[in-house]
Amino acid sequence: MFSHIFKYRMKCLLRDKETVFWTLAFPIVLALFFNLALSGINDQETFRAIDVAVVNDEEYQKDEIFQSVLQEVSTGESPLFNLHVVIKEQAEKMLEDNEVAGYLMAGSPVTLSIKQSGLNQSIIRSFTDYYVQNMATVASIVQKDLGALDSLVNDIENQVTYIKEVSATSAEPNNILSYFYSLIAMACFYGGLQGSRDVSDIQANNTDTAARLNLAPVHKMKTFLTYMSASLLIHYGKMLILLLFLRFVIRVDFGNKLGFVMLTTFVGSIVGLSFGSFVSALLKKSEGAKVAVLIGVSMFLSFLSGMMYQGMKYIIQEKAPLLSYLNPLNLLTDAYYSLYYYDTYSRYVENMLYLAVFIPVFCIGTYLIVRRRKYANL
Q: Which residues contact 149 (CB under 8 A, 6 or more apart)?
């Protein structure tokens, strides 16, 4: 009996064009738009040399050390500054027209003029302060001991760094991936559309087919579990197609833990199906109203997990951290990124444990609601 119901339920679900659109076609189309909109953003974050002017006056002509330092930081493969040597009037005009972030004037000490605050201005200020401090140190030491000049210059040119930067992971940070990971999480939750239909199709007051099913000599919960098994198999198959599309067409990087990526997707699919069945059992509304609620809730949770605006994910973590644990889409997104970025599994396991809690909550809630529903007549 199980195989018979399972086979025909599979055929029924595969013919449901609306569900196929929301659970497969829509995520693929959205991924294409994401790829068009987000491609090249990481390349734009590459550092570009800062436009800086220096006033070519008598002080600047006499200060050969300052000229040499500016020349050093303005040349090479990755220059810090794009240097413009001009007269003072032209430097002021360039600053006013935002052609340069600031201009320098040689002297004792070197001075910096800026129009506004910003990252580029802070970098120029740090460079200026560093130069002024080093020159003051050299002048102070030479004044006391002229013979120390050679060793001092050598120490400045060959500074030793005692702090070594070590990465906690072998993967490169990539904020763009979070958008695609949250898209997968949303697609997993769209499986709730199939879970909702599974519940509706066993409630006799919804359709004539459901009424006839309740008259059949098969326990309603057995039929429901068969329906859910077929829905899970079909939805997980769609999710695997989405993963293949993202990996080989969009070129989304999932790291080297593909087995865990598939496991995460499987668990996410179960959560999505159980959520849909719970909502369908809870709401005594039309099928269209239930679909609207499921899509609306999924989109809202996707927004909170950073699919539309990545900063929202971090705002929630800072302002309302409890909400980030109560949002299964956020847990899914974080689980995918943990597999990509971290070499250890501690954060991934934490996300999956919190996510697994939702499965019994939704399933038990659905069972308690459905089993108590009785009908006066059919």
A: 138, 141, 142
Expressed as residue numbers, the domain containing 272 is: 2-40+173-371
CA distances from 37 to 30, 32, 122, 298 (A): 10, 9, 30, 22
Last residue of a domain, one of 157, 181, 213: 157
Same domain membership, residue 312 and residue 276:
yes
* Per-residue pLDDT tens digits for 203-213: 756 665 655 56
H or E segment to which residue 104 belongs: strand 102-105
CB atoms within 10 A of CB 93: 14
- As a whole number of angstroms, the distance between CA 83 and CA 54 comes to 7
User: How far apart (Å, rounded) are the C-alpha atoms in residues 281 and 279?
Assistant: 5
Map tokens 């189309």 to a residue: 29
- Is 351 found in the same domain as 320? yes
Residue 168 lies in a domain: no
Rg (CA), the chain: 32
Residues 359, 250 within the same domain = yes
Q: How far apart are CA 192 and CA 329, in angstroms?
A: 13
The one-letter amino acid at 211: A
Rounded Cα distance between 117 and 126, Å, is 13
Residue 243 lies in a domain: yes
Query: Into how many domains does the chain fold?
Result: 2
Nearest partner of 118 among 40, 50, 42, 45, judged by Cα: 50
Query: Cα–Cα distance between 207 and 192 in angstroms, integer?
Result: 19
The model's pTM:
0.72
CA nearest to 130, candidates 100, 146, 148, 109: 109
Instruction: Please report the DSSP string for 334-345 in residue order.
Output: HHHHHHHH-SSS
Cα gap 60→83, rounded to integer Å: 14
Closest CA to 262 of 298, 290, 237, 245: 237
How many whole angstroms separate alpha carbon 173 and alpha carbon 192?
A: 32
Instruction: State the SS3 of 205-220.
Output: CCCHHHHHHHHCCCCH
Whether residue 173 has a cis bond before it, omega within 30° of 0? no
Residue 66 has a CB neighbour count (10 Å cut-off) of: 18
Q: How far is CA 286 from the centre of its chain?
A: 35
Whether residues 149 and 25 share a domain: the answer is no
Kindly report, residue by residue over 54-109, the tens digit of the pLDDT.
999 988 888 888 888 898 889 888 888 999 999 999 999 999 999 999 999 998 88
